[in-house]
Design brief:
By secondary structure, the protein is an all-alpha fold. It contains four helices and no strands. The protein is about 70% helix and about 0% strand.
Length: about 140
């Protein structure tokens, strides 16, 4: 997603100008391991979300209109598991890069995502699926 990629690129630029690494060799080794684990988990979650949409034969909003409300797989515990995977991938990248800057910028990225992307998608889903979507939002949280 361009929002995450752009923010991460800005964070890397900031780190090159004003280095802000996590200190301590043991901590860095642990963060590299954790960053790798989070990155792999995020990619698996994203793949699971895409697979569920493919099995349901419904569009992801940017590609084509949604024909079904997807509530299975990772969508049982999050209304936005693919966005959760983007956030996790972003965090994993920050840990692997050993820089604090992406984590400082992350709240702005998430706020923009909610305001300009998720809110629009939720409006669309509410108009399209009406009561079924409202019931789903009462049962499943937006994030986790």
């Amino acid at each position: 997603m361009p929002l995450f990629a752009g923010a991460f690129a800005m964070a890397v630029w900031l780190d090159r100008r004003y280095s802000w690494p996590v200190q301590g060799e043991v901590v860095v080794d642990f963060l590299a391991w954790l960053g790798s684990a989070v990155t792999v988990a995020s990619l698996l979650l994203f793949a699971a979300g895409m697979a569920i949409f493919a099995r349901a034969r419904t569009g992801i909003l940017l590609q084509k209109s949604a024909t079904r409300l997807v509530t299975t797989g990772p969508y049982r515990w999050s209304r936005n598991p693919m966005y959760v995977s983007f956030v996790a991938l972003y965090i994993g990248g920050a840990l692997l890069a050993n820089t604090v800057w992406p984590l400082v910028i992350l709240p702005i990225v998430v706020a923009m995502l909610v305001r300009f992307v998720i809110a629009r998608e939720e409006d669309y889903l509410r108009r399209t699926f009406r009561d079924a979507y409202d019931d789903y939002t009462r049962q499943v949280p937006r994030w986790l």
